[in-house]
Amino acid sequence: MPPRRILSALSLLLAALQPALAAAQHAHPTDDSVLISTESLASRLADTSITIIQIERTAELWATGHIPGAQPLLLSAITTTRGHLSAELPSIAVLDSVLEAAGVSNGRRIIIYGDPLAAGRLFFTLDYLGLGRHAAILDGGFSKWKAEGRQVTTDTTPAPRGRIQPDMQPGTMADAGWVRQHLDDSMTVILDARPTAEYHGEVPGEAIERPGHIPGAMNFPWRESFSRQDPSTLLTRPELQEILGRAGLTPARQVVIYCRTGTQASWLYFVARYLGYSPRLYDASYPEWSADPSLPVEGPPR
User: Fold this and answer.
1) How many domains does the chain have?
2) Looking at the structure, do residues 174 and 139 belong to the same domain, yes or no?
3) How far apart are the C-alpha atoms of 219 and 123, rounded to whole Å?
4) What pLDDT is attached to residue 251?
């Protein structure tokens, strides 16, 4: 075939494949990702190798209906209060006991849905314990599941007790000393997950000694990671990469995320993991930072 005809044929082939290539670029991953689609989960409801957890702030939400086989878990069961700091990580013994009771074991696939902030917090907790590579959050959550007319039940199906052997990942965490040490590090991005008004110190949250934010922190409110057309569904990977890229996030840079209690930051921690980054969570977050007069703060604009 003459070279001109070969090039013409290739052009036609690429044109025909363009819609499929575009769809693939914007499609969410399914089985082996930290994000799983409702279609993929629906096809695996009978799979005994997975544990499905609905995590909420109150038990009533699970009791009124849930995905078949899902186990209930309260956000308060995987968080604790230390002094004026809320939503901190409890002891490893407490986490092991609570998660094992929900059927979590090393090697099992763990599917999470429920309150998005609670889901993000559970994902971070599992990642900290070394179980994150087996965990995934349901894209669109329970609202999308119900909107698609998928199975819902009020039946209780207790899971066999799991067994966890933690493989602690200290690199998922950061404390105030670590953050202070990296304030002027060009290879570190500090991300503030709070609403913009709190970031600017215009609407300070509870227990905030000095309104404002950590110097140099970029603001990306956690809710902006969701699609405006479907507020329960995460933006596509290319969209998130573009938005967070404007905040300076790249695979080569270390990102540390904070908020008001560590819960909003947990969601952006999950988003960063979805994008393939290796984030750190500053769990004590801004209440601890602002309460320490030795630590610098960028306050409200004057």
Assistant:
1) 2
2) no
3) 22
4) 87
Q: Looking at the structure, tell me whether residues 134 and 211 fall in a common domain.
A: no
User: Are 198 and 138 found together in one domain?
Assistant: no
The per-residue pLDDT for range 21-55, each reduced to its tens digit, is: 333 333 343 345 999 999 999 999 999 999 999 99
H/E element holding 82?
strand 80-82
Range of the domain at 204: 170-291
Query: What's the CATH number where 54 sits?
Result: 3.40.250.10
Q: Scan for tokens 């109150």, then name that residue.
A: 58
Instruction: Sort residue 128 into left (φ over 0), alpha (ψ -120 to 50) or beta.
Output: alpha
The closest of 260, 257, 288, 284 to 273, measured between CA atoms, is 257
The residues that bridge with 189 in the sheet, in sequence order, are 255
Cα–Cα distance for residue pair 281/251, rounded to 1 Å: 16
Pick out the chain residues at pLDDT < 50: 3-31
Three-class SS of residue 89?
coil
| Tokens (6 digits) for 171 | 């690199």
